Amino acid sequence: MHRLRTCAARLRPLTASQAAAQTAGQPRTNMAAAATTGGTRTFQPIRCYTAPVASEPFLNGTSSNYVEEMYFAWMEDPKSVHKSWDVFFRNANAGAPPGVAYQSPLGLTAAAGAALHQGSPMVGAQPNVEKLVEDHLAVQSLIRAYQVMGHHNAHLDPLGINSVNFEDVPACSEIMDVGFYGLNESDLDKVFRLPTTTFIGGSETALPLKDIIQRLEMAYCQHIGVEFMFINDLEQCQWIRQKFETPGIMQFTPEEKRTLLARTVRSTRFEEFLQRKWSSEKRFGLEGCESLIPALKTLIDNSSAYGVENVILGMPHRGRLNVLANVIRKELEQIFCQFDSKMEAADEGSGDVKYHLGMYHRRINRVTDRNITLSLVANPSHLEAVDPVVQGKCKAEQFYCGDTEGNRVMSILMHGDAAFAGQGIVYETFVLSDLPSYTTQGTVHVVVNNQIGFTTDPRVARSSPYPTDVARVVNAPIFHVNADDAEAVMYVCKVAAEWRATFHKDVVVDLVCYRRMGHNEMDEPMFTQPLMYKQIKKQKGVLLKYAEKLIAEGVVTRQEYEEEIAKYDKICEEAYTRSKDEKILHIKHWLDSPWPGFFTLDGQPKSMTCPSTGLSEEDLNHIGQVASSVPVDDFTIHGGLSRILKGRGTMVQNRTVDWALGEYMAFGSLLREGTHVRLSGQDVERGTFSHRHHVLHDQNVDKRICIPMNHMSPDQAPYTVCNSCLSEYGVLGFELGFAMASPNALVLWEAQFGDFHNTAQCIIDQFICPGQAKWVRQNGIVLLLPHGMEGMGPEHSSARPERFLQMCNDDPDVMPTMKEDFAVRQLFDCNWIVVNCSNPANFFHVLRRQIHAPFRKPLIVFTPKSLLRHPDARSSFDDMLPGTEFKRLIVEEGAAAGNPQGVKRVIFCTGKVYYELVKERKARGMEDTVAIARIEQLSPFPFDLVRSEFEKYANADLVWCQEEHKNQGYYDYVKPRIRTTIERAKPVWYAGRDPAAAPATGNKNTHLTELRRFLDTAFGLDAFKDQQ
Ligand SMILES: Cc1ncc(C[n+]2csc(CCOP(=O)(O)OP(=O)(O)O)c2C)c(N)n1
Ligand SMILES: [Mg+2]
């Protein structure tokens, strides 16, 4: 399918000047090429427009419909057709002979113009337009063929060894051959009217065929390949045609050219400097794609000119240091000192390698003289994982500055060719691009298409012709460009910025380039790509090519060019000297999302306390009223929903809340306090389990909705609740990015069932769990993961608590020192908080604590399913009043607590199984012999509270009970921690399901049998005798 890229025959170098010459002077072996200026073959026209032709049947074949249409229109109103048709039909009606009825339209020839002015039909003429119509249609088809497929013949590959061939794409070069349309060499000098769907004419409306072809070649087959004809919007297609077809449109002022050269100097010399100083360090240099830097700068300059003030960037390893230095303008010494392995880390956390760190910088854009803030989001090695995160952050920045149109904040995503084609998250991110609650109003994607991924060739790395085909799914135009042509790169970037500013849609710039070194600077590329690299070794760099061009044009002198180089080299050398003075590595200097005002000046929390998260009775009542009413007039809701709201009203009267109402109280109160709340995920608006109903739908009016949460108080913060597309990886990444932008928002992502979170595992493993440790960046995102063994089978039961718990950073073997602020300190030190609340009040408190805490940590909540409607899983207002707070552990409060000495067993558990245990204990009449304690906050582990509960029941044995299988759930996490707490004074027995491969059985009976068995174990006071 793809050409053999290492095949020697293909390895013909194509320099910029050769490529231009080839296009202009050595055309393809089709007839279109013959028309280009200076073509090697010339043709004598044997026929011209007005020449009589042999009698041909009128109105047959493909042209008949068209002519018929014209004829009927002319019959109705002669003015409704073009003058040429008017003259033709009048002549034909008057009996003009074949070839005479037609006369050239106005403007094509002077004679025709004169004839039309005279407007005198030639009596006796016969109609003869078939060939004429066919030829015009042929020319239209030819123009369209260039627009659709011209990019296939563009000279995109600087190496001239195109990684793609189109031999299996239906005859693209033939389709652009005039012969294919029944035209021949003799038609080249004939003048054809240009359709309105082309701009190649400039101010002319008709052109000779050979000029049409030449202009199409110039527009579509040089160093830019434009892929856009799949876009199903005529205005947008016209816009692009105009940008690339208009003759002479790609013009630059000498000033622009000099700036472009200076930027290419910086880009190139930066890599050369690093290579000289640290030749054996990995840096994933940009050599072979130095144009990336001027490309990004052009995008940013132009976007700034359109009003953009804030650009959020995401990118992989390739050229990252160069982007930091020359686009974001990080101080060079800060970059250089990263290469010094002896530097001490000043910040907490484990840090990250230099080509992953983020950055935030606000400065004046020198071209537009306007303020611009640039942030590069830190990312893991996992390619493309940062894409949705960047989008979420961008959306949040737009949201906070009221930029609903995306005029002030935008995102730019960079990609490698292999990753862009291979990673599913690219698609999942594109899919978000036009959804109301997720759109960032257009992202500019820049692909560093070096035609290789590590050692893997595109021929075996992708099934699509281009690495960018995924973008077609959202109708994003794709501008492929030969990255060795600096001006072509600058031009497509200008157009891309303008496209985004005009249409607020995604656009892709595909920089077709090469990779001068191996995958990293240590790798030997000749092992695997010998012929490609032989070619690369001969390749002149883009800087040299462009400098020579500008020197030849007289735009710069050689001396000026050399001075520019010396100037930048000196900047690098001086920064290098300064970098040696840096002794301490501050990862904080690499923060991509500072939260001004949230921390003290030295980045610490302003306090180490968390206030009560309770609410006044009045507030609870008020929010409860809103939650149980329809706050707009003339709005008809479903009868079933009326009953649900009525039920809520009754609960409020009874001063109780169920799960949904508890959540309502948390969200509503935070909104009233001015905190934005955003809940996103699949079907979250109603709630997968039909319990939430945050969006009411008028039963009589399509799309009329009401969100009562936004009717809480006049000065409340806005509430966003949005059903997402069916993606976990993309949407969770997005929400993480949203939460990154500000600490003053409660951002929640809910999985449909907790089981499905693992398709977003990379966001959890690479960002949420270690984000602060790697990048000194806090994040308060909340994951709501429905979890619980309800007999729903292996894929609707487990949110995999064991995995979250296994990634907690608290030490199982060390009893922490208990101080007054222990509970808050523990939170401050942890990497994330994992809870399984057994009642709505505790859920309410833990959500509010997320915002009232003086720092931010991710919160993982295993949420219930059957408890949503369980009559016992309700809370009283009393547990939510001022002075109340989240309970890390809920102690036994029943009969057992009244007589602790008589208690034989303490069962520790978490979540829903508590209700099964209570029911069973009651059924067995063991209320005073078995105490049950609920660990609500699993991590950080409530060592202090577990200890006091243990100490209370001195004569009891200890059981950990869970409904999950033994190798899953919480057991492996809690067991060593309980043992540390009680100093191994007693065994910690296990009551729960046996180890298993799957999280749950698909068989209801087996499910119930398993439940019965572990309840028997939990309450069998002799159950562990044999194990003593
Ligand atoms: C998700 C993921 N899988 C695998 C890797 C390992 N890896 C690092 S770079 C690379 C090749 C990337 O190729 P490309 O996207 O074309 O970027 P280039 O290095 O060529 O600029 C691979 C496979 C990774 N970093 N992330
Ligand atoms: Mg690559």
Low-confidence stretches: 1-64, 105-127
Q: Which hetero compounds are present in the coordinates?
A: thiamine diphosphate, magnesium ion
Spatial order of the strands in the main sheet? Answer: 5-12-13-11-10-6-9-8
Question: Could you tell me the number of beta strands?
Answer: 30
Largest sheet: 8 strands, mixed
What report would you give on this structure?
The protein is of the alpha/beta class and 1028 residues long. 38% of the residues lie in helices and 13% in strands. An 8-stranded mixed beta sheet has the order 5-12-13-11-10-6-9-8, sandwiched between helices. Helix 16 (424-432) crosses helix 25 and helix 22 packs antiparallel against helix 23 (639-653). The protein starts with 15 loop residues before the first helix and ends in a 9-residue tail after the last helix. The relative contact order is 0.07. The site of magnesium ion has 6 residues, from helix 15. Residues 416-418, 450, 452-453 line the site of magnesium ion.
Q: Concise description?
A:
It contains 35 helices and 30 strands. The protein is 38% helix and 13% strand.
Key attributes of the depicted protein:
8-stranded mixed sheet; 7-stranded mixed sheet; binds thiamine diphosphate; alpha/beta; disordered N terminus; 1028 residues; 13% strand; 30 strands; binds magnesium ion
Topology:
Blueprint (H helix, E strand, L loop, with lengths): L15 H10 L5 H4 L28 H14 L6 H11 L1 E2 L13 H9 L5 E2 L4 H20 L22 H4 L15 E3 L12 E3 H12 L3 E4 L6 H12 L8 H24 L14 H14 L4 E5 L5 H9 L3 H5 L7 E2 L13 E7 L4 E7 L9 H15 L8 E8 H6 L1 H9 L10 E7 L8 H4 L16 E5 L3 H18 L3 E6 L17 H9 L3 H12 L4 H22 L4 E2 L31 H11 L11 H15 L2 E2 L1 H14 L3 E6 L14 E2 L7 E2 L12 E5 L5 H13 L3 E6 L10 H8 L2 H5 L6 E5 L14 H6 L15 H8 L3 E3 L4 H13 L6 E5 L11 E2 L12 E2 L4 H4 L6 E5 L3 H12 L5 E6 L1 E3 L3 H10 L4 E9 L5 H11 L6 E6 L10 H16 L9
Parallel strand pairs: 1-2, 6-9, 6-10, 7-14, 10-11, 11-13, 12-13, 16-19, 16-20, 20-21, 21-23, 22-23, 26-27, 26-29, 29-30
Antiparallel strand pairs: 3-4, 5-12, 8-9, 15-24, 17-18, 22-28, 25-27
Helix pairs in contact: 3-6, 6-8, 10-11, 10-20, 10-21, 11-12, 11-18, 14-25, 16-25, 22-23, 22-24, 24-30, 25-26
The structure holds thiamine diphosphate and magnesium ion (MG).
